[in-house]
Amino acid sequence: xxxxxxxxxxxxxxxxxxxxxxxxxxxxxxxxxxxxxxxxxxxxxxxxxxxxxxxxxxxxxxxxxxxxxxxxxxxxxxxxxxxxxxxxxxxxxxxxxxxxxxxxxxxxxxxxxxxxxxxxxxxxxxxxxxxxxxxxxxxxxxxxxxxxxxxxxxxxxxxxxxxxxxxxxxxxxxxxxxxxxxxxxxxxxxxxxxxxxxxxxxxxxxxxxxxxxxxxxxxxxxxxxxxxxxxxxxxxx
Length: 237
What we know:
- This protein starts with a helix and ends with a strand.
- It has a six-stranded parallel β-sheet with strand order 3-2-1-4-5-6, with helices on both faces. The protein has a two-stranded parallel ribbon with strand order 7-9.
- By secondary structure, the protein is of the alpha/beta class.
- The relative contact order is 0.10.
- 52% of the residues lie in helices and 15% in strands.
- Helix 2 (42-55) links the parallel strand 1 (30-35) and strand 2.
């Protein structure tokens, strides 16, 4: 092989490696990890975060309850320094919200849709945008001794809140199952087919919209199509 052929082969190898790396980069799904609550399992939580960073394009949100220095040199966004518009952009870009350390405060407010703190506001907005949420339950799910000793009314109240967020399609799992649950939720979300109903067209008309953009893989019902034609609303795929 002469020098010209050698140079061509080197260039080809470089280009192929670059394309491969570029493809791998774009295949990394964007996820958001919310660290906002103190935890006794800090080491395990940070290990989970590190594992996610190896496979996904991760954004880490911190609240004032989490000390930034504990993340060493990991990049993060402080929620108190971000505007609502910036946080909404993160929600629009993310595929899933992961909360590896929860609290009774989060559980209660999320179940009741009380958004008077940044972390819960972000979680509720994520729900309203149809993005899945996975929460590690270790610090909130009553263990066997708590179930034996705690007043039944307290346990009933907690279980009621847990059932509510599960009804709201929030996955509530032990930390050890967090990663595999996130993988499954991402797959299920990709297969999801939102349904555009007549009431959605009516709402768009009430809001004065002339067109709406439907999510990927959406199905538009005949009634919705008829109303869109009647109200002169364009449905964009």
